[in-house]
Design goal:
alpha+beta; globular
Length: 182
Amino acid sequence: MNDPVCRVREWGEEMGALAVAFADGFEEVYSYAPGEYLVKIVTAQDGARALALLAEEGVTGALLEYYAVLGAVELPDLDRGIWIASPERVAEGILAGSLMPVTGAVEDTVTVFATDGGGDLYAVSTSTGSVCHLTGGACDGTSYDVSETGYRMVAPDLWTFLDRLRQDLRGALVERPALKAR
């Protein structure tokens, strides 16, 4: 599928179904309730508003394709969890310094769009479009200073990052212990 909007919509629809399947029976298998899952597919009107908001804040490329179709995605029990921010949160983050230079081990400018819930951030490089994982850095409000181990490219582009999340969720369903006899 070459149309990015269709591809992102299909990803969102599949992730929504996978999240429901993952949450179903989760407590029975793991002995605690699952977190709240969310895969928000937005209306065309909301997508247009998100694009205008983010473009005004300097966001370009794949993040705009993503937010034209989807909003927040919350997968709290997948590994450490992943929370992709809503477009409003990304814009708020940019105003607070999340479209920022990364200094130290690498010189780049990134747009933060997600977190793993443990304080680590996921960001898209504005120069390469790759997705990086930022850990243990120091943010002074104008830049994020990282050591060599604090900046790791995790995907060459946003689509690869999203596809890996889908593969991880599919894999978690396949590997989950069989439900106890009801």
